[in-house]
From TrEMBL:
Keywords: Hydrolase. Belongs to the peptidase S33 family. It comes from Cellulosilyticum lentocellum (strain ATCC 49066 / DSM 5427 / NCIMB 11756 / RHM5) (Clostridium lentocellum). GO terms for biological process: proteolysis. This is Alpha/beta hydrolase fold protein.
Length: 315
């Protein structure tokens, strides 16, 4: 018997893809994937293994992503659309699972949506969890560039060092398509030097074992989603600072970072964390982990999250 089900649900004018791992009578965690444009539904079963039956897990492909994109190729993502989608999604889950509030668990890009929503709609959120939380995008890129340069120098890679030395005034004052290409090149170098993933986890193998059967068209949708989301990503790079949305959370907040993550380094979020006003706030650093803490160190990740939810009397 399957422990999950899939469906398309009418959300904000389009049919969006949902994957549920239900646990009767348990709190609902809504997972907000990264990217933008990068579905993580195929990894859902791994989180189900971590959380077991302590909660219901729900994944959905955001507008411009994955199977939602396949079903709605002309529905382009914008921050306003995605926040309205998220609101309608939570309203749907409240009805579906007969619950007043939802736990939001955002990863990377998903923390942009999740934190804004938690600040704007506290009445619908019981706990907010940010994994690889995005804070100040400019500071993030400054720190990441310095860390990458240091790593390349320490390994005496003259070829890659020349590439970095050729990049002047990074991050740029204003992001555009040209500078975004540099951003993507640096992302590949971060991967190469272990600044995005500390432990080499076979993500492809995890996806292949997924019960939802990741196919070629899903891979193509991933490439299309990344390209389609470029204007959105440029807007975020140019202007996003979470502090502009507020510092007062009406629910417990919890942030998890990998010690070796230079996609969203903890240092770029620490100042904002100190300003946060919340009933409970915690920040934890998982050692020997990068940007994908839940897959690089799954046991440590589960040990970090489940006790916190226990403290909040939710599991």
């Amino acid at each position: 018997m399957k422990d999950y089900f899939q469906e398309f649900v009418e959300i904000n004018g389009i049919k969006q893809y949902f994957l549920h791992y239900p646990a009767k009578g348990k709190p609902v965690i809504l997972f907000l994937h990264g990217g933008p444009g990068m579905s993580e539904a195929a990894f859902g079963y791994k989180l189900k293994e971590m959380f077991k039956d302590t909660c219901t897990l729900v994944f959905y492909d955001q507008r411009g992503t994955g199977r939602t994109l396949q079903n709605n190729p002309k529905a382009h993502p914008t921050l306003d659309f995605l926040l309205k989608d998220l609101h309608d999604t939570i309203k749907y889950l409240q009805t579906c699972y007969l619950t007043k509030k939802i736990i939001i668990l955002g990863h990377s890009w998903g923390t942009v949506l999740g934190s804004i929503y938690a600040l704007q709609h506290p009445e619908n959120v019981s706990v907010y969890i940010g994994v690889g939380q995005v804070g100040d995008m400019r500071l993030t890129e400054e720190l990441a560039f310095l860390a990458l340069k240091s790593k390349v120098m320490s390994q005496n890679s003259s070829k890659d060092l020349k590439k970095l030395q050729a990049i002047i005034n990074y991050p740029p004052k204003q992001w555009d398509s040209k500078s975004y290409k540099i951003y993507n090149k640096l992302s590949k170098l971060k991967d190469k030097y272990g600044l995005s993933m500390s432990v080499k986890v076979p993500l492809v193998k995890i996806v292949r074992k997924s019960p939802i059967q990741f196919r070629n068209r899903d891979f193509i949708a991933m490439l299309k989603g990344t390209k389609l989301s470029e204007p959105l990503m440029l807007d975020v790079l140019n202007s996003f600072q979470i502090e502009t949305y507020g510092i007062e959370y009406k629910m417990p907040v919890y942030y998890i970072f990998g010690s070796d993550d230079y996609i969203t380094p903890k240092q770029a979020f620490s100042d904002y964390f100190e300003k946060i006003i919340a009933p409970t706030k915690k920040i934890v650093l998982i050692e020997n982990a990068g940007h994908y803490t839940m897959f690089e160190q799954p046991e440590a990740f589960a040990k970090a999250v489940i006790p916190f939810l226990n403290e909040c009397a939710l599991v």
